[in-house]
């Protein structure tokens, strides 16, 4: 009887642990229930405030805030990538023609992975015309190769991940002074239904890149931010 008495609570403990494990929700379960909602400037502002809220003073957080004039029209989820770019940048042909600087791009597109970068490059065909596009991600491409290409040639659009773009800026391989547009691939979801800002590493690297130089350039009026 004693053995039976001891074995009963053990079984209950195991079953309660299993129940607790089952109850734990995955991010994909939560996202699956939330309907697609286009990103707006306030979403990025809130993200920056939450990220820096605990570690920065009120004055420092104020310096990270961007006015609505810093943003391009947001994607309402009806656009293809090409049609969105045509809408936000109607004078692209002129900008492309006038761009002569090396180690820089006119438009920077930031997304969550190398695979997604390639998808976006393919889908912007109708917009880009005969401009030169550079892949700015780490997969199968060494950073020295990208720095060499930027130094030797003139590129109009850079598409890649925030980590590699940040590394290129830090190592003086990419200069952002000629950049006019920065597009964040904000609304797209991967197989696990995560957007780029739902992935902790991508989120941190994107915020680091914004803080490093983009926010300052936006406040000065030289760069416009777009949420696709």
TrEMBL record:
Lineage top rank: taxon: Eukaryota
One cellular component (GO) term of this entry: 90S preribosome
SUPFAM superfamilies, per the entry: P-loop containing nucleoside triphosphate hydrolases
Segments for region (Disordered): 1-41
PANTHER family membership: PROTEIN CMSS1 (PTHR24030:SF0)
The name this protein goes by in its record: CMS1 protein
UniProt organism field: Alca torda (Razorbill)
